[in-house]
From TrEMBL, chain A:
Domain of life: Bacteria
Species: Acrocarpospora corrugata
Transmembrane segments annotated in the record for this chain: 50-73, 85-104, 125-150, 170-190, 202-220, 262-281
Keywords: Membrane, Transmembrane, Transmembrane helix
The protein's name in its UniProt record: ABC transporter permease
UniProtKB/TrEMBL annotation, chain B:
GO CC entries: plasma membrane
Keywords assigned by UniProt, alphabetized: Membrane, Transmembrane, Transmembrane helix
Organism: Acrocarpospora corrugata
Top-level taxon in the UniProt lineage: Bacteria
Transmembrane segments: 50-73, 94-122, 128-150, 157-176, 205-225
GO molecular function, one term: ABC-type transporter activity
Protein's name according to its UniProt entry: ABC transporter permease
Pfam families: ABC2_membrane_2 (PF12679)
Length: 289, 238
């Protein structure tokens, strides 16, 4: 004899969420902010703070020295517009060390679908990561520049304060940040391994650095000045410096000048568009797999 | 030497995307040599500049980084090294095998293209091609050993290695003459200078310092890495 079924559905007190549902924009902003903190190692282990903070300190060093020189010798030591180009190795190192952090772990552990199950779209994800890196790189350049500017305002030099140069170098810093971030993220996103990502970004930088130097040197020594000036633009730092020079009328850092006109700016736009397009396509593919 | 470990390492190095990084840089060197030749820059000073800034200054440290850290760092990073360490193979043997693999990759991917690029530009004139090929060979072996050690010592091997090549050898070595003594790239140039009679090639480090330094650094790095691997602790990902 079998007993009648005794199954019961228990009320386990499940409740619906009645609160405010925050928008797609909120999710993207949160991701960007979290990524920005992560780039500097905030909210991560102490060991991952070492490299970004060390690099930030090195970036500040010339600014501090410059203020000291201004106070003691009443002379300007480091110009505004040349700051990023002078410190290019440090900036490239930061880009190479930190951009894989933004893209590699999510690809490696295949957690992209978790992000995309939220209101976030692929475009928002990519944009959030990109904006985070742009802001990080901008801060890296803008903080020392602003320090020098404040120093120049406080120390009374005989030469007038270079307001225009400061503001144009800040504009230049934005362009530097956008170009570097797009290249760094695009290169790093092609491998889910952090070490390989670091290697490919730095390989790209060192390759363009050496290639532009060799071509510039050889073409200059053969008297082909216009071609030499175009070839130095292979290095992204000189490319952006050329845009800066043509756009804001700052002093060229390479000592020889750049091709005039809108050519460098057009190349810069093309590079950024290509890099961001590649990044977006990479993530659209990763999201569907 | 353990042939099984060596074959697995070769497969890991050449089978993945890494081979593109390994192959792309030497191909770029050859392409630039061809371009310079076509545009009529095939003189001795151009060849020396190309070799110094490109072959020794860029390709060599980058390949050393990719090969040297690549043979061991990824395994430590994702923890699969534990399968290798649990086998009855001496840890110094593992390191030595990995070092031989990295050094042979350096020889294949940096020495041959360096010789070819110099040969394309100026032929065998002034012994530049042979000189730089020999310099790159020995410096490549030293780089492989040093970056292998860095790969065992730290998780941020690539960043540390790049800092050495870019900041110490590149930036500081450019301003501080003393820093050049401790630069593998300068040792390579001393070797190249010894074998070449070109007046465009000037070096700061004496050969009597460079050769012993290279030997000590290579042997020391391999031994230290072997000792370090004996006490390796695997910590989780951050």
């Amino acid at each position: 004899m079998s007993s009648p079924p005794t199954g019961v559905i228990h009320d386990i007190g499940y409740r619906h969420y009645d609160g405010v549902r925050l928008s797609r924009g909120y999710a993207a902003t949160a991701l960007a902010l979290n990524s920005l903190r992560g780039v500097f190692g905030l909210g991560r282990t102490a060991r991952s703070k070492i490299i970004p903070f060390l690099i930030a300190a090195v970036m500040l060093l010339p600014a501090v020295v410059s203020i000291a020189v201004m106070a003691l010798l009443k002379q300007q030591a480091v110009g505004y517009s040349e700051y990023a180009v002078t410190m290019q190795a440090v900036l490239a190192l930061f880009l190479a060390a930190q951009s894989p952090y933004l893209v590699a772990p999510d690809l490696r552990f295949r957690v992209l679908p978790l992000y995309l199950s939220r209101p976030l779209k692929v475009l928002d994800y990519v944009a959030a990561k990109f904006v985070a890196l742009v802001i990080a790189l901008f801060l890296l350049m803008a903080v020392p520049l602003t320090l020098i500017y404040i120093g120049e305002l406080l120390v009374e030099l005989e030469t007038p304060v270079k307001h225009a140069e400061y503001f144009s170098s800040m504009g230049g810093a934005v362009i530097f940040a956008v170009v570097l971030a797009s290249i760094g993220l695009a290169l790093a996103s092609f491998t889910p391994r952090r070490g390989l990502g670091v290697a490919s970004v730095i390989a790209f930088y060192m390759f363009t650095l050496a290639a532009s130097a060799v071509f510039f040197g050889v073409l200059m020594s053969e008297g082909q000045d216009p071609a030499a000036k175009w070839s130095i633009l292979l290095n992204p730092f000189f490319l952006v410096d050329a845009v800066q020079v043509n756009l804001f009328g700052t002093e060229p850092t390479n000592g020889e000048g750049y091709p005039p006109g809108l050519g460098p700016a057009a190349i810069t736009l093309l590079v950024v568009a290509l890099a961001l397009g590649a990044l977006f396509l990479r993530y659209r593919k990763a999201a569907s797999s | 030497m353990n042939p099984v470990v060596a074959s697995i390492t070769y497969r890991a190095m050449l089978g993945r995307k890494r081979i593109w990084l390994l192959a792309a840089l030497p191909l770029a060197l050859l392409a630039i040599a061809v371009l310079l030749r076509v545009f009529g820059g095939g003189d001795e000073s151009t060849a020396v500049t190309l070799m110094q800034t490109f072959a020794i200054g860029t390709i060599l440290p980058l390949l050393g980084l990719i090969a040297g850290t690549g043979v061991i760092a990824p395994e430590i990073e994702d923890g699969t090294i534990i399968h290798l360490l649990s086998k009855p193979i001496g840890r110094p043997t593992i390191i030595f095998t990995k070092f031989v693999v990295a050094a042979s990759l350096m020889a294949a991917f940096s020495v041959v293209p360096t010789f070819l690029a110099a040969y394309l530009l100026i032929g065998t004139e002034a012994g530049i091609a042979t000189g730089f090929a020999v310099g790159v060979l020995f410096a490549g072996i030293a780089y492989a050993a040093v970056f292998l050690l860095v790969g065992v010592l730290t998780k941020h091997a690539v960043v540390v290695g790049v800092s050495y090549a870019l900041i110490w050898e590149g930036a500081i070595g450019g301003y501080v003459p003393g820093a050049r003594k401790l630069s593998i790239q300068q040792w390579a140039q001393s070797l190249a200078d010894q074998l070449s009679s070109s007046p465009f090639l000037k070096t700061d480090v004496a050969l009597s310092f460079a050769v012993p330094a290279m030997v000590i650094v290579t042997v020391g790095a391999v031994i230290w890495a072997g000792q370090r691997l004996r006490g390796l602790s695997l910590t989780g990902d951050e």
